[in-house]
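STRUCTURE REQUEST FORM
Protein name: Leucine rich repeat containing 17
Source organism: Kryptolebias marmoratus
Requested output: structure tokens
Priority: standard
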Amino acid sequence: MRLITIFLLLLLLWSVEPRRGLQSKAVERGARGRVRGRGRAGVTRRQTQECKEYVEGGEKFLDCQDRQLTSVMQDWPKDIHHLLLARNKIQVLRDNMFAKFTKLKSLDLQQNIISVVEDNAFSGLSQLTTLLLQHNRLKTASEEILLPLPRLTYLRLFHNPWSCRCPLDNLVRTLQVPSNRNLGNYAKCAEPFSLKGQKLKKLTVDLCEADMSLENREKPRPGHPPSKVKPEAVSICTYKDSKLLDCSNKDLTHVPPELPPEIVKINLSKNGIKHLRPKQFLLSKDLKLLNLSSNNLQQIDTAAFAGLLYLRELDLSNNNLHYFQYGVLEDLYFLRKLVLGNNPWICDYNIHYLIYWLKHHPDVRYTGLTCSEPPEFRGWQVADYVKTYNGECPVDKYPEGNDTGQGAEGGSENEAQEVMRETSVGQILPQPLREKEPNTFEIIRLS
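Status: completed
Returned output:
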């Protein structure tokens, strides 16, 4: 009887065990599912936690750059002073989007894809002093976006395709108020064509009136097909042949925008261009000759010649250039002729970049590089001035004797004589330093 009972209990246990196995597997799957679920639910938390929060100078920073964010998160701390949101995927700045960050002093939104800023997007940011919106897709905005920002000091808007039409007029007028000198600097119109490239801060036209006149001008007359608007360079300048664009003596004050890309030579001489800004010749990649002589040029920005890889000849004579900023010539890999005459070159430390570049490009033939200032170096070749930059100051009299011993750097006798070239004011370069003869002593024996 006992054997039968034990046998029945074993059968009963055997039949129950598989169910427990199934249940344990289900529980395990459920546990795994919950773990995965926590992982999914924690993604947002981890993403927000990836924003680096730190304190510097007693102020809190939240660095959320490069996070693929499309908006701000509700669980971010409210007491931050600086919010870094550069290089994300934000498209629209909604009303009250930053309202809870009442202590915010700077907001970096550059390099997103922002195309719309609603009027109350910055509501509540009464302490904000710096707003960075450059490198986005903004075409227009209302001046009302600035009303909640009484302390705003720095506003960056450049590298946006601004449409300089009537809806932008009020914002432009706000940016041009003299007290707003650091708001919107360098932002430029992308359209219409007549205003393309002009800075918002320097627009002098009423955009609404310009809009109306443009519409009337472009409206086709009955029986006449609409005329195509020619690029400014084509309408002002003339083609001498299929590859030469002659823009000389046209009273130009700036390089015409959208130069035809197919030109090989362009003559911009005898105009009133005073300033070459970056990338003004970027579309003319096949340009081989560029004449900018007789323009009263005073400043050439770094990257002004960007894209001119195949330029062979550059004429900058008869201008008002004192020196080149560092990097101005770095894009001109195949330049072979550089005309620099009749410029008031100032021989001080700033001129060294030009000589340094020419030294490392020996194939470039150049002319006209003569010191104009200061008076003690007037008439010298700039290269000679740079050679003696670390030497002694010029003296008023010729050194005694004709000793042309080698200098401290071991130059030859001919080099030493070359260094002693006479200047226009009767002064000469100092002789190379000579080693001092050892002092001789006479020993007197006292009796």
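Reviewer notes: The first helix runs from residue 2 to 50. The mean pLDDT is 77.
Form closed.
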